[in-house]
Write a sequence for this structure.
């Protein structure tokens, strides 16, 4: 769990640094930074999509996942959680940028293969190298995000700790289920979602990214189904 803790602390410290840097920054500079962050996130998404996996696995996972996520309306639930946190932090008021930062950071830090693979490695073998690398990336991203959205980014450390902590604790079960191909499918689908998040941050789209989260869970099952069929 040490890797999970380090990753969580990295996000908290990075967010605090970003909030401190935010003071005195002109709005036009802040907007330029946000656009830059969006472009970087798009790059991360595109880079992760280039792994070796069947495109049909990604298509089916995204389509079915989007249907499930939209029916459940995960995006609404995540935004509602952000609003409640914002109301408590703001003492009864709500801050839209707080919720935006919380949702965007939670998705960015939790969606992706590194969160899953790193947590499984940490739980099985005690090897935290992947999570340490992820901590550096998340530290940098949290500075950039919080310099635009504010303190809401820091609270994404809560779902991050719970999500990666549970994976690390259940690593024994996941290791017997996830093959290299299944992990590649998770990475591809997760990267597509991250790219969508980047487009949102850049202001190009207004996708309800959280509603695509079920696609990540479905991707290894879809991968195994295609393996059986083919």
């Amino acid at each position: 769990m040490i890797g999970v803790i380090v990753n969580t602390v990295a996000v908290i410290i990075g967010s605090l640094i970003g909030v401190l840097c935010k003071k005195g920054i002109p709005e036009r500079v802040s907007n330029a930074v946000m656009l830059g962050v969006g472009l970087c996130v798009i790059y991360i998404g595109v880079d992760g999509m280039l792994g070796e996996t069947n495109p049909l696995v990604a298509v089916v996972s995204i389509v079915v996942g989007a249907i499930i996520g939209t029916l459940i309306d995960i995006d609404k639930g995540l935004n509602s959680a952000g609003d409640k946190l914002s109301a408590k932090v703001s003492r009864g008021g709500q801050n839209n940028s707080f919720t935006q930062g919380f949702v965007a950071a939670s998705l960015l830090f939790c969606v992706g293969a590194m969160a899953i693979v790193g947590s499984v490695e940490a739980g099985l073998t005690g090897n935290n190298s992947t999570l340490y690398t992820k901590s550096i990336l998340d530290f940098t991203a949290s500075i950039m995000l919080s310099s635009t959205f504010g303190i809401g980014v820091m609270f994404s450390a809560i779902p991050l700790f719970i999500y990666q902590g549970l994976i690390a604790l259940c690593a024994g079960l996941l290791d017997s289920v996830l093959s290299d191909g299944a992990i590649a499918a998770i990475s591809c689908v997760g990267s597509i979602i991250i790219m969508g998040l980047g487009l949102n941050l850049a202001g190009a789209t207004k996708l309800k990214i959280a509603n695509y989260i079920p696609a990540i869970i479905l991707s290894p099952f879809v991968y195994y189904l295609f393996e059986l069929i083919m």
